[in-house]
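Hey L., structure's done. Input below.
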Amino acid sequence: MELGQLEAFINVVEYKSFSRAAEAMGLTQPSLSARILSLERDTGGPLFHRMGRGARLTETGQAFLPYVTRALESLNEARAVLDATQRASSGKLHIGSARAICAYVLPDILKKFHSLYPGIDVSIKTGRSSEVLEMLLSGEVQVGLSRTIVHPDIQAQHIYDEQVVLVTDPSHKFAKLGEASIYDVAHEPLILYDRESSYFVLINRVVREAGIVPNVQMDLDSIDATKRMIERGLGISFLPRNSLRRELEIGTLKTIRIQEGHNVVLPTSVMVRRQSTQGTIVQSFLGLLLSIYSKDQNSRNSE
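Output:
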């Protein structure tokens, strides 16, 4: 069976006429009829009742129709994907990102994106999640990556949950025990990262619910600075797990389980403006994100 035969079949079904189908396809009627006859030899029987100027499906034709329809739909979808890939081969993508996501998550994503679309330039602006929202609303960026925010003009797609964990240096008593009570945490020098960040809001909620007053020794605006202070035994902190990959691998920092079972997670989303038309470049980036994190979710589910 050939594509031209299947297209001729669908057109005769649609126009209920060999002559009108031939005209729609830019063929002569004998040429279209030859395609149908060849297809009928492949299917082993007539597909149409020829009725003068008209044509209607035989029982064989009716059974064959849904399969041809699905085959042509799949082919059209494949063509659309290829066209989108080709059109997305050059241009510029403007991304707004929360600082921690930009520093510890986005580089790996952009490496994969660049390998697929090397001709696309990427511009990045960073800020707190609320600032990323404003960048989107003002049209300053096309895509936002931040902690999940609900806004009537924004469409947010959840991609992963960021776990916030208690962190100490390897020689700390909590590290030796492997766990700590939230009440013991209250007596340790605590290093905070960015009081206006989503992390601080969540950690502050946890300690309030536990009824403790944290012993805040430092208030920094950098996760990297916070990690360096912890490594030197100057305090402990709560930090996003994604920011700790290198230090956990080389053993300069340790994560500590909270005995009371506090599990602090920040839902992370990719966001676009709800009323804007997404171009092929944005669609390609969104498709990559969803493919990455759907695979990650499937691998976690299978563990």
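The first strand starts at residue 48 and ends at 51. The chain has 13 helices and twelve strands.

-- N.
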